[in-house]
């Protein structure tokens, strides 16, 4: 969005997962109602200040970012290069949402790579509605109907867009990485009919929910809640 005139240019980028920076949770989640992490059995866990959370990472991913003077874009309305605001959002949610946590980083200054071992809390039930394009645009412009750039006569209520009825997800798999950058091991926690299992090469063992919650998540997989309960035969 041009900071001079407000002209907005939209680009759509298909992806199979969302890579999130792992940062400390200094500011807390966007919404007060998201300060607890719900589990599959209905229990809630309080988010401790300073602890990284998946919700905090998603907040940062969709936060408006001011582009500096060295990143000016050509505004079609002003017909000159202007400073702008860039914001990511999710237009259409998949049946399964995959989040990749950036635990491996490289420092060009120190010319070294390392693994980030910081713990991150993640919810067992996830509401993705705050991160949808329709929600973000509604909070910016209100409930009026408007066209998406490049869509012709599309609107915030476009049937191709995700809505709140499909924005609720349930965690069903967590991939972890143990070890260092140059030598490590991957294992997976898998949820089946509200029971968790650890898949470690050829060994599959039953584990408690607390074990999964304490895991150092590298990738998290969420399935739409309506599909999860349909597959598990619960309501």
Query: Which band does the percent of strand residues land in?
Result: 35-45%
- Give the overall silhouette: globular
Summarize the main sheet. 8 strands, mixed
Instruction: Give the integer mean of the pLDDT values.
Output: 80
Q: Tally the helices: what do you get? A: 4
Give the C-alpha Rg.
Answer: 20 Å
Helix content: 10-25%
- Say what oligomer this is: single chain
Notes on the protein architecture:
The protein is mainly β and 235 residues long. The chain has helices spanning 54-61, 133-141, 209-213, 225-232; strands at 18-21, 36-38, 44-46, 52-53, 65-67, 73-75, 80-82, 84-86, 96-102, 104-107, 112-115, 120-121, 125-127, 168-179, 184-192, 195-200, 203-207, 217-224. A hairpin with a 4-residue loop joins strand 10 (104-107) and strand 11 (112-115). It is globular, with a radius of gyration of 20 Å. The termini are far apart.
What labels would you give this structure?
235 residues; mainly beta; two-stranded antiparallel sheet; 4 helices; 13% helix
Question: What is the topological layout?
Answer:
Elements: E1 18-21, E2 36-38, E3 44-46, E4 52-53, H1 54-61, E5 65-67, E6 73-75, E7 80-82, E8 84-86, E9 96-102, E10 104-107, E11 112-115, E12 120-121, E13 125-127, H2 133-141, E14 168-179, E15 184-192, E16 195-200, E17 203-207, H3 209-213, E18 217-224, H4 225-232
Parallel strand pairs: 1-9, 4-12
Antiparallel strand pairs: 2-3, 5-8, 6-7, 9-18, 10-11, 13-14, 14-15, 14-18, 15-16, 16-17
Please sum up the structure shown:
This protein is mainly beta and 235 residues long. 13% of the residues lie in helices and 36% in strands.
């Amino acid at each position: 969005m041009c900071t001079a005139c407000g002209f907005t240019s939209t680009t759509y980028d298909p992806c199979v997962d969302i890579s999130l920076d792992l940062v400390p949770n200094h500011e807390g989640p966007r919404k007060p109602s998201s300060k607890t992490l719900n589990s599959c059995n209905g229990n809630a866990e309080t988010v401790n200040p300073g602890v990284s959370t998946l919700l905090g990472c998603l907040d940062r991913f969709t936060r408006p970012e001011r582009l500096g003077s060295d990143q000016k874009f050509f505004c079609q309305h002003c017909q000159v290069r202007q400073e702008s605001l860039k914001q990511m959002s999710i237009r259409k949610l998949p049946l399964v949402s995959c989040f990749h946590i950036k635990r491996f980083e490289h420092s060009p200054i120190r010319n070294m790579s390392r693994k980030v071992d910081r713990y991150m809390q993640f919810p067992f039930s996830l509401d993705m509605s705050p991160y949808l394009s329709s929600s973000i645009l509604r909070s910016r412009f209100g409930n009026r109907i408007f066209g998406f750039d490049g869509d012709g006569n599309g609107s915030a209520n476009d049937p191709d867009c995700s809505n709140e009825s499909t924005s609720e997800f349930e965690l069903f798999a967590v991939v972890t990485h143990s070890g260092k950058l140059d030598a490590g091991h991957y294992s997976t926690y898998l949820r089946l009919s509200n029971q968790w299992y650890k898949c470690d090469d050829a060994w599959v063992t039953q584990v408690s929910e607390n074990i999964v919650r304490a895991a150092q998540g590298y990738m998290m997989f969420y399935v739409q809640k309506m599909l999860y309960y349909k597959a598990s035969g619960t309501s």
